[in-house]
Amino acid sequence: MTPLYAKRVPVTPLRQNCTILSNDAGRAVVVDPGGDVDDILQELGDLSVEAILLTHGHLDHAGGAAPLKKALEKRQDQSVPVIGPDRRDEFLLQSITKQAAAFGITGMENVVPDRFVEGGEVLHFLGQDLHVAHVPGHTPGHVVFVDHGNRRVLAGDTLFRGTVGRTDFAYGDSRSLIDGIRTHLLNLPDDTVVLCGHGMPTTIGEERRTNPFLIS
């Protein structure tokens, strides 16, 4: 098992947690670069980025993907693909500039992924497998990335410490979200660390025991 290290980089006025996963070989992937690309580049330092992964299409998670891709490809002189989310979030990815204008946030761009993902896929980066699970409800195409080897899940805006993601959007679905969390996340070992899209990390065991949205 290749150990992966996770660095949390809060970005944008919405304080979304961009995550940098890296290994001892100096390679990295960036998950949910919502914005503040210069800050992300500074945190990356000399790491060589293999890919940019997106959990869903909201501006605070995907608004920096296109500019970060351009900056990294110029710096590394090689392609850096944007991968994910599920295709059902394409409409959100194509309305990021409109979303940003509504919040008065600049520097965000629409993004066209190099490819979308589907639940059940296994991605291989940094010498490690990342399993994709489709967990809709917050958005129709929301996915999570599960790193079984390091007992870690990149949950985006599905599961948080003591709560779950918002579903009060026109396309939200609270039942689908709870069902997806129960099916794809609560079956993980108790000590699995949940890297949340906002706020501090938690564990699957803690949320199974105490999260009021998940206690039967």
From TrEMBL:
The segment(s) forming the Metallo-beta-lactamase domain are 15-198
Q: Which SUPFAM superfamilies match?
A: Metallo-hydrolase/oxidoreductase
Q: Where are the transmembrane segments?
A: none
Q: Which UniProt keywords apply?
A: Hydrolase, Metal-binding, Zinc
GO molecular function per UniProt: hydrolase activity
Q: Which Pfam families match?
A: Lactamase_B
- The answer to whether keyword Metal-binding applies is yes
Q: From which domain of life does this come?
A: Bacteria
The record's annotation in InterPro entries points to:
MBL_Glyoxalase_II (IPR051453), Metallo-B-lactamas (IPR001279), RibonucZ/Hydroxyglut_hydro (IPR036866)
The cofactors it requires, by name, are:
Zn(2+)
Keyword Hydrolase among UniProt keywords:
yes
What is the name of this protein? Hydrolase
- Organism listed in the record: Gluconobacter albidus
